[in-house]
Amino acid sequence: MTIKTGLNGHRSNIRILFLGQCIQYGYDGVSCYSTYPNVAASILTAQFPSFRFKFDFKYLYHPTGLKAILQHRLPLTSPDLAVITLPAMFAATHWRVNMIYQIAPELVDTARTFMRKVQAKVKGVATTALGRDTLIDKTFAVQPPLTLDKYEHLVEEALCYAKQISSCRIILLGAGRFNDDTVEDYAIHSPELWSSVNRMVVRLGARLNLPVIDMQDALTEHGGEVFISNNHKFSEFGHEVVGREVALVLSAQLRMLMLDQSSMANL
Fold first, then answer.
1. Count of Cβ atoms closer than 10 Å to residue 156 Cβ
2. Whose CA is closest to 222, among 241, 194, 199, 196?
3. Architecture of domain 2-265 in CATH?
């Protein structure tokens, strides 16, 4: 966090990284401006009008590439705060992953983004109307769903490494609630799996002393209105609910950053 002093007092440049899946970019029924990162961004901008925020959005395609993404992204952009979304999908369904993604996920992300634009242009639709996979993904080997132990190991290894190379404050976003009305087909179709992944994220946060947004708890007071019909994707209202929770935690972490900065200035 860079502090600048002006006529109106302290000015802070705050960089926040959102590392997640397609759900943070928007899709049919939810525009990119209505997704939970943008909801949180709007709340923070209004709450801290004297701060200059820079919001960075990166795609986490699979946990096998998480360490490599953090290794590249944290030194490159030096975010003050990072929100990492860890959904149940990685443990529920098969995924197309290859060695290139595990070594250089940013390269694959750039190629996928370009291919999505090409496919959208050819089909005459918006990129948000496309499915998850691109033509590039179809060249990757299909991997089975991650076991919970493997999922936890990959994330913990990446987070421990991130702590070594960066002072960025990391926030974990747990798995959302299972939608009983979904018609999507998964290798493991179980509400208990969604709960297990969320508990895994909460457990990791406690072990590594990282704040966690408990998605199961945040959504428990709401019904099916938080989902798009027959789908696990959040509705616009669901994004609003999650965005408020994300903003609440980011706000608390931001205030802690301010206290740390103030303490250092008084030394």
1. 15
2. 241
3. 3-Layer(aba) Sandwich (3.40)
Alpha helices per DSSP H over the chain: 36-47, 66-77, 89-92, 99-103, 105-123, 148-165, 191-208, 215-219, 236-265
Q: Judging by DSSP bridges, how do beta strands 9-20 and 81-85 pair with one another?
A: parallel
State the DSSP code for 7.
Answer: T
Q: Cβ of 103: how many Cβ atoms within 10 Å? A: 12
Would you call 49 helix, strand, or coil by DSSP?
Answer: coil
Residue type, 81: L
Distance CA 223, CA 167 (A): 38
Q: Do the Cβ atoms of 208 and 156 come closer than 8 Å?
A: yes
Burial class (CB in 10 A: 0-12, 13-18, 19+), 133: middle
Residues 124 and 126: their CA atoms lie apart, in Å, by 7
The strand pairing partners of 17, in sequence order, are 56, 82
User: Please, are residues 167 and 121 in contact by the beta-carbon 8 Å criterion?
Assistant: no
Q: pTM of the entire structure?
A: 0.83
Where do the domains of the chain lie?
2-265
Residue 95 contacts by C-beta under 8 Å, 6 or more apart in sequence? 62, 142, 143, 145
pLDDT, block means (10 residues), the chain with 267 residues: 42 89 89 95 95 93 92 93 96 81 68 72 72 65 90 97 96 92 83 94 97 91 91 93 96 88 61
Q: DSSP string covering 54-97, please? A: EEEEEE---GGGHHHHHHHHHHHH--SEEEEE--THHHHS-EE-
